[in-house]
Amino acid sequence: MYKDFTVHTRIYFGEHALDRLSNIEAERAMIICDPFIVSSGLVRHITDRFDRCGIRYSVYSDVVPDPPVEKVIAGVKAALDDKPDCLVAMGGGSAMDLSKSIRKMAEQLDGSYRPRLIAIPTTSGTGSEVTSFAVITDNEKGVKYPLVAEDMTPDEAILDEELVKSVPPAITADTGMDVMTHAIESYVSIDNHEFSAALAEKAIEICGQFLLRSYADNRDSHARRKMHIASCLAGLAFNSSSLGLNHGMAHQLGAQFHIPHGRANAMLLPHIIEFNSEIDKHSRSKTAYPPCVRKYCTIARTLGVQNLNEVTTIRALIAYMEFMLKEMNIPLSISEMGVVSEGEYMARVDAMAEAALADACTATNPRYPTKEEIVTLYRKLWK
Ligand SMILES: NC(=O)c1ccc[n+]([C@@H]2O[C@H](COP(=O)([O-])OP(=O)(O)OC[C@H]3O[C@@H](n4cnc5c(N)ncnc54)[C@H](O)[C@@H]3O)[C@@H](O)[C@H]2O)c1
Ligand SMILES: [Fe+2]
Question: Which of 116, 221, 248, 305 could covalently link to 362 via disulfide, CB atoms 3.0 to 4.6 Å apart?
Answer without folding.
Answer: 248
